Amino acid sequence: MGDAMPVYQRIADDLRRQIDEGALAVGERIPSRSELKLAYEASDQTVDRAVRVLKAAGYAEGQFGRGVFVADRAPLGTLLRSTGAVDSPFAARITADGTALTWEATSTTTTATRRVAERLGIDPGDRVMCTHYEYLANRQPVQLATSWEPLAITEGTDVAFPERGPYARRGVRGRFAAIGIRVVRADELVGSRPATSPEAETLGCSPGQCVTVVERTHYDAEDRAVETSEVVVRADRWRLEYGLTFTS
């Protein structure tokens, strides 16, 4: 019985195995198109497709004018999720080498899309404060986040702009406590999807490469959603760690 695996997939699997086993090291150039064509008796299109599979999986990255090289897939760090963790939408706690993370943020007033409205329990078109965050290590973006808060709750208060004012950078619970709202829980939904072109450009990966998406919504004591956010990180560079405390 013949091998039913497509040739491009066999090439990609062979190259992945060589990378995983260390035969091709991080930063090393992947064999050229002509070399792969000769080794696998394959066409240009087949070889190119195999390399695209490697790039989409985060195993390889192209360098303009130089070729395709083995990408560094070592985890950059961990996203800690626990009762005691920072309750912001960008709760990155450590990096592999201990590099401190910094962040930049911009906020704008906009209207809620249908999806955001559903998560916040408001009507589509209601006004919200939308804040975009970039988390950086060594000045390179490693994590993206977007947060939405109903302006019906925060407008005119000291916490209307999450990144400005006397309560900036205090996390969701700390900021809302400053205006008399007690945040008591957060629900989180974790999934994955292909990176969009803008996300890939910012995070330094290939469009279509897998990213982890964390949707988090904070609720007050009346079970009212007061904030919802979406964190996007490269699935090959970040791990999620959940600390769960059991009570009797």
Can you describe this structure?
- The strands form 3 sheets. The protein has a 6-stranded antiparallel β-sheet. It has a 3-stranded mixed β-sheet with strand order 4-3-11, with no helix packed on it. Strands 1-2 form a two-stranded antiparallel ribbon.
- The model has no long low-confidence stretch (mean pLDDT 87).
- Helix 1 crosses helix 3 (44-56) and helix 2 packs across helix 3.
- The chain is 24% helix and 35% strand.
- With 248 residues, the chain is an alpha+beta fold.
- The protein has helices at residues 7-20, 33-40, 44-56, 114-120, 151-154, 171-177, 197-203, and strands spanning 60-63, 67-70, 77-81, 92-95, 101-111, 127-137, 140-150, 183-194, 210-220, 225-234, 238-242.
- It has 2 domains: 7-70, Arc Repressor Mutant, subunit A, CATH 1.10.10.10; 77-242, Chorismate lyase-like (Chorismate lyase, 3-Layer(aba) Sandwich), CATH 3.40.1410.
- It has 7 helices and 11 strands.
Concise account of the structure shown:
The protein is of the alpha+beta class and 248 residues long. It is 24% helix and 35% strand. The strands form three sheets. The protein has a six-stranded antiparallel sheet with strand order 5-6-7-10-9-8. It has a three-stranded mixed sheet with strand order 4-3-11, with no helix packed on it. A two-stranded antiparallel ribbon has the order 1-2.
Q: What's the architecture of the largest domain in CATH terms? A: 3-Layer(aba) Sandwich
Overall mean pLDDT: 87
Discrete helix count: 7
Largest sheet: 6 strands, antiparallel
SSE succession: HHHEEEEEHEEHHEHEEE
User: What is the approximate shape?
Assistant: elongated
Quick one: CATH class of the largest domain?
Answer: Alpha Beta
Q: Segments where pLDDT lies below 50 for 5+ residues?
A: none
CATH topology of the largest domain: Chorismate lyase
> CATH superfamily name of the largest domain?
Chorismate lyase-like
Indicate the radius of gyration in whole angstroms.
22 Å
First-residue to last-residue Cα separation:
58 Å
